[in-house]
Structure formats: C-alpha cells, structure tokens
Recover the amino acids of this structure.
C-alpha cells in the first residue's frame, strides 16, 4: 500500500495534508475523540502514563500533542515541565485555550513543531510520549529516530496507537464500525468528509504489533514491548534508550 493521505485529490505532501485536516476538525476534535471511542481513550491515556511512574520523568515531550490531552494527563507524574509539539496550529490553539482555562501554563507549553525535525538538543528529555500520532508521520522511521535522539540515555518512550483486532468477533465488529459507521458520524459532526475516512485507512496501513516492535528495534530502541488494549483496538508500546 502506498502512502495514505487525507485528501487524495491534493498533490501536496502527507505532512501538509495532515496539518490541514487537523486544522479543519480542531474545534470538534475533543468531542469526536471521546464520543467515537465511547470515552475509552481517556482510560488508555491514563494507563500509558502509568508506565512512566517508576522513572519519575522531570522533562517530558509530547509529540503530536494535538489539543494537549496527553500532555495534561502526564502532569499526574509531577514533572517539572511538559512540552507538546504539533504541526497543526488549529489543534494547538484549542489546546492552549484548554491549558489557560485550567491554569496549567506554568507546567505545560505547546509549540508548533515537526516530528521529523524536533527543535530540541540531543538527550534532553526523560520521557517522550505520543498518543495516536505516529500513524500520521510522513516518514515513520525519521520521526521515531528524532524521538530517540532527544531522549536521554535510560529515558523511556511511550506510544499509544490504534491497531487492528485479529480475533472473532471483535475483528468483524471493528471493521464494520471503523469502515462504515465512524466515517459517517465523523463527517456529520466534523463536516470534513476526508478526515474520518482517512482514520481507518491509516490504521489499516500502519505496521502495528510485532511489526511496529521490529521498527523500534531496528532504529535502536532498547527492550521494546507491546500490550494490546480493549481487544486490540489500540496498542500500547514502550521502549528505552
């Protein structure tokens, strides 16, 4: 399968298309995210953050932070600072408003930034986290390599991403929901017909499970592991530097 993009009629690169897509749906993204996942995504994020408790990270980078939900959840670890980066200014503005309203400005900073060229020095962060973002990288290996570069030796990366259930009947139910129901509801609420058609297509194309573990290993991540969540609808990955 070739590169999956949101707007097939657009000759632009995936990175620009993804930014345009998220700008388009940013105002309704949080509602849709929780509604379409039945709120399960909140529990997934909490579980992901718990994987960092033992290393007590002080400096955390949230890549593809979107509206900042994962960055906010990371405050449960009591870090000194959480920095979130994203290529969509629309999503960042929603996130900044959320952070201001909760008076979290002193602990969380959201910046415009490209996952494939992170604006940070080597070995800077104790932990790097990503929720539902690596699937949208234009160059997966380059983005993951940048995350490894800015991670301190002994630091940990935690990645939450959609995956594909493989067992009956969840596989069949998932396929019906993801390919038939979700795009219709997503289009109706977000008013972007491409965004929620892109979601199942990008999940289908993503190298999940063992395949993703192999990508991490090949890039130099140490001891990569994977745990399927909610019958394999999503998966939790973690590894060290």
């Amino acid at each position: 399968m070739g590169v999956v993009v949101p707007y097939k009629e657009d000759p632009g690169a995936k990175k620009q298309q993804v930014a345009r897509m998220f700008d388009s749906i940013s105002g309704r993204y949080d509602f849709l995210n929780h509604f379409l996942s039945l709120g399960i995504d909140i529990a997934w994020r909490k579980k992901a953050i718990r994987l960092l408790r033992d290393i007590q990270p002080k400096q955390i980078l949230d890549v593809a932070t979107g509206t900042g939900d994962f960055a906010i959840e990371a405050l449960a670890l009591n870090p000194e600072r959480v920095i979130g980066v994203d290529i969509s200014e629309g999503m960042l503005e929603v996130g900044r408003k959320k952070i201001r309203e909760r008076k979290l400005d002193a602990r969380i900073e959201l910046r415009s930034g490209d996952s494939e060229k992170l604006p940070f020095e080597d070995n800077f962060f104790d932990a790097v986290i990503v929720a539902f973002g690596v699937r949208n990288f234009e160059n997966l290996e380059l983005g993951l390599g940048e995350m490894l570069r800015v991670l301190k030796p002994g630091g940990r990366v935690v990645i939450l991403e959609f995956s594909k259930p493989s067992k009956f009947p969840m596989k069949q139910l998932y396929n019906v929901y993801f390919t038939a129901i979700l795009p219709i509801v997503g289009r109706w609420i977000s008013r972007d017909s491409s965004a929620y058609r892109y979601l199942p297509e990008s999940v289908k194309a993503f190298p999940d499970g063992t395949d993703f573990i192999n990508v991490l290993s090949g890039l130099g991540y140490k001891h990569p592991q994977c745990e399927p969540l909610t019958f394999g609808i999503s998966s939790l990955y973690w590894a060290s530097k």
Notes: Residues 38-164+206-240 form a domain with the Rossmann fold fold (CATH 3.40.50.150). The CA atoms of residues 33 and 48 lie 17 Å apart. Helices lie at 14-36, 40-50, 69-73, 89-101, 140-150, 170-190, 195-205, 210-219. The longest helix spans residues 14-36.
